[in-house]
Design brief:
362 residues; alpha/beta; seven-stranded mixed β-sheet; three-stranded antiparallel β-sheet; 14 helices; 12 strands; globular
Length: 362
């Protein structure tokens, strides 16, 4: 087991290893000692139903059983899998569930699932009774390397993705890499988009490793490497006012692509397309070295990710103008000085479309 300490306003630990769900009550007790808070498990229908043939219990029921055997009272809320559930209507249902089960300020929400589960459950915890503890148990690669770390929580509204949310650090994160065996190939690929992103913006050696494509036996190491990179950035900029914005490489237009597709294009697919798109534009502007976009595209394709943008630039810019990273009349795009080093590049909103068309430098 690899343990990574995160020294944010509320310090916490991230545990990474194979089979950690069986140790969850022990890891939880390291944080809460002899206390026995009531535990509200929040998950989706897909994760709740996971299991291997011949197993008496799937991972989530086994987790509940282990907690109950350790003396914890649990209750569980299950919502439909997928991005369309990540909205305020589902949050209201969670609030009703928390109220009906008597969840108080001393109790704990446990988010078991991918990024949608973690974002939504974390936001519910941040806003219930003005904030109660929550624990992240990410079950997808994307959630392990990215969304479960750093305290960003939130939901989508019709006007855009993640526009309603809160910074709310978890009390604990437990990444059981055994859960990755349940992932369909396309969901694993989704997570690899974020892994490629980390290599592109922060770690050229990681990017080189990914270019070789032989990662199966090194997945726990790769998860730990990505988490460490994000930890370092988050510790220096917990509230996303400066350096932390580089983690949004590929995301401004990735989110726009997701929205325009009505989420038939997944988050990871959108990010992959967004990374290649911004690299292509910045090569034309002389910001990014020639050939960078091709390197990104080749690496993404190894992991089954699309790289061609299917939508008009003006349509994507319309979505991007409402992006949460906009500040006043500027939107900060993340560019690459080279593979392994990113930079912040503010562009006036009124010049965004021209910049993306390569008409000017912004």
């Amino acid at each position: 087991m690899k343990t990574i300490d995160v020294k944010t306003g509320r310090p916490y630990q991230i545990h990474i290893g194979h089979g950690l769900l069986s140790r969850f009550p022990e890891l939880f007790a390291e944080v809460y000692g002899q206390r026995r808070p009531k535990l509200a498990v929040i998950t989706d229908d897909r994760v709740n139903g996971l299991g291997h043939p011949g197993e008496a219990l799937g991972p989530v029921p086994a987790l509940e059983a282990g907690l109950q055997a350790a003396g914890y009272e649990t209750c569980k809320f299950i919502f439909p899998n997928g991005e369309p559930s990540k909205n305020l209507d589902t949050v209201r249902q969670v609030y009703r569930f928390l109220s009906e089960n008597g969840i108080t300020r001393t109790d704990v929400v446990i988010a078991v699932g991918g990024g949608v589960v973690g974002d939504l459950a974390g936001f519910a915890a941040a806003s219930w009774l003005r904030g109660i503890d929550f624990v992240q148990v990410p079950t997808t690669l994307l959630a392990m390397v990215d969304s479960s770390v750093g305290g960003k929580t939130g939901v989508d509204i019709p006007e855009g993705k993640n526009l309603v949310g809160a910074f709310w650090q978890p009390a604990l994160v437990v990444c059981d890499t055994a859960m990755l065996s349940f992932l369909p190939e396309e969901i694993f690929s989704d997570g690899m988009a974020e892994v490629v992103k980390y290599g592109a913006i922060l770690d050229g050696d990681l990017f080189a490793l990914l270019e070789h494509g032989e990662i199966d036996k090194r997945i726990a190491e790769i998860v730990a490497r990505c988490v460490t990179l994000k930890r370092d950035v988050v510790e220096s900029d917990e509230r996303d006012k400066g350096l932390r914005q580089i983690l949004n490489f590929g995301h401004t237009f990735g989110h726009a692509i997701e929205k325009e597709s009505h989420f038939t294009i997944t988050h990871g697919q959108g990010v992959a397309i967004g990374m290649v798109l911004i690299a292509q534009v910045c090569e034309k502007a002389g910001i990014t070295p020639p050939g960078t976009a091709d390197k990104l595209a080749r690496c993404c394709k190894i992991y089954g990710l699309p790289t061609a943008n299917p939508y008009p630039v003006e349509t994507l810019c319309g979505h991007a103008r409402g992006d949460k990273k906009r500040a006043g009349n500027k939107i900060t795009l993340i560019t690459l000085d080279r593979i392994g080093k990113a930079a912040l590049h503010p562009v006036p909103v009124e010049k965004l479309e021209a910049f993306m068309r390569g008409d000017l430098h912004g």
